[in-house]
């Protein structure tokens, strides 16, 4: 397993993390993802972690980094599928992933990205409540 | 890693295979998938193997089995993301995965499922060419 696959779904990209991350794999993922955002003109990234039973500070930081990088490339990131136990651990560890948006599952994440995108597309001087 | 996550995307399910399969993991996947097809009333299953560099007869049979099981539960299966080298090996091994439909990537696979579903929805005695 050398790289984590990135699936394109319309204007969004989906990354499913199923394996233990290590430095090189995380770096490769960041490279692949940023390249793909640019090449495919992707508007959003969904990171699915439903397979992860543990999210440590390394993965937490990687997710925050990916989110920040995507934002610089004008793509929004949504983290989906977090298991309840992971949410508990993250808060206990003091890793609240601030700045990273989350959704219950891929479907809701995609809806969130779509709403977001529509609202950006629709913005032309009007104030939106 | 005890189970492969199954993501719901509208009326379809997406399975991304990233890790080496073994007996128990394959059985768990089949159980999880068939349960989810029934519970979520899924109309189609996308199996993404873009991360696999090798598909042996075990995985080939597992995919064929999943496809057959899904069909019995009234869901269609499309295998997506096959690497060119995998296609070569499969044919050389005599595993042509007959009965399993394929598409280049998730997007096209989803379009295929949607077309398929629409055509089924639209069938009411009319002959479709």
What can you tell me about this protein's structure?
Chains A, B: This is Anti-sigma-factor antagonist. Chains A, B: Residues 2-113 form the STAS domain. Chains A, B: It comes from Hydrocarboniphaga effusa AP103. 2 copies of one chain form a homodimer. The relative contact order of chain A is 0.16. Residues 124-129 of chain A have low confidence and may be disordered. Chain A is 47% helix and 17% strand. The first copy, chain A, has a single domain, classed as Transcription Regulator spoIIAA (2-Layer Sandwich). Chain A has helices at residues 23-40, 57-72, 84-92, 106-122; strands at residues 6-9, 12-16, 44-48, 76-80, 101-103. The first copy, chain A, is an alpha/beta fold. In chain A, helix 2 links the parallel strand 3 (44-48) and strand 4. The A-B interface holds A 1, 3-5, 7-10, 14, 16, 18-19, 48, 50-51, 81, 105-107, 110 and B 1, 3-5, 7-10, 14, 16, 18-19, 48, 50-51, 81, 105-107, 110.
């Amino acid at each position: 397993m050398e790289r984590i696959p990135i699936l394109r779904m319309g204007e969004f990209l989906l990354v499913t993390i199923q394996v233990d991350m290590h430095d090189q794999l995380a770096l490769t993922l960041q490279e692949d993802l940023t390249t793909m955002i640019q090449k495919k003109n992707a508007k959003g990234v969904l990171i699915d972690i439903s397979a992860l039973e543990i999210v440590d500070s390394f993965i937490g930081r990687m997710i925050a980094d990916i989110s920040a990088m995507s934002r610089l490339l004008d793509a929004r990131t949504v983290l989906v599928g977090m298991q309840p136990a992971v949410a508990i651990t993250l808060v206990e560890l003091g890793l609240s992933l601030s700045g990273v948006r989350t959704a219950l599952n891929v479907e809701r994440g995609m809806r969130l990205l779509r709403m977001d995108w529509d609202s950006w597309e629709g913005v032309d001087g009007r104030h939106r409540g």
